[in-house]
Amino acid sequence: MSAFSNFHPILLLVYVTVVLVTMFSSFHPIIVALALIGGILYFFMLHGMRTASKDVVYYFFVFLLIAAAYPSYVHNGFTPLFFLNDHAVTLEAVTKGLVLAGTVVATCFWMKSYFEIFTTNKVLAVLTRVSANLGILVSMLWRFIPLFKTKWREKQMAQRGIGFYKVNSRVEKFRRAFALWRQTLVQTAEFVFVKPDVMKARGYGMTKARTQYRVMRFTKRDGMLTIGLVLFLLYYIGYFSQHQTQYYPEISEQTLGAGHYVIIGLLMFYPFIYEAKESVKWRYLQSKI
To answer: What H or E segment, with its residue span, contains residue 81?
Structure first.
């Protein structure tokens, strides 16, 4: 269970949005690096060293692929490093390729962590205030993919156990795999999308006067984080032009001081710092028992 996930659902959505907007709007190498490191550290806190290492290795190769592909197709810039097929590979294109790769990988880690902590209960808590039908629809879509993956693995393991895939023809093997995939898709869709009828039969969303018990409340802790996000947004808007980076025709000089990076680093590392603090606090309380 993540301690950071105990914040209010709307605040979690705002926080991740601020992180991603800050990274994409600046495209600053150091800001992207801070977002990438912060996302990876929080991902490690959620999943543990062994499980998260597999994802880190996979996305490392994704990073290398994007970083290598971009300068091989884009040849803008004034500083050639070497020539590839009579086209100059420039310093500016290589730098922007590295930043673009870091942005993509950082986004993947932040979104994977976000979907881990933003459960269907939080979706319902946020959207049912707007529309009960919208809340149940989004929660169903949110649940569909992980449920499909789980059932797909279960069916595959069962069919392998009875020799379903032991055929010589690759075409027949593909046909059987596709038939199993189609059956799993239909079964999952039937299981997930039958829920509106069940909820409607129970009177869900049938009247505007319906009451709802809300476990998730806006606390003092949420208020402190809200104030911090508001102050950061005011700071970022005030220094917006200084955070921008131009790569073409030449890389613009960076005028930000160390204090700016500390402020942005606190934003990017906040979930990791909060999780680490709560973990230390929990172990300390356990030692007192």
So the answer is: strand 80-84
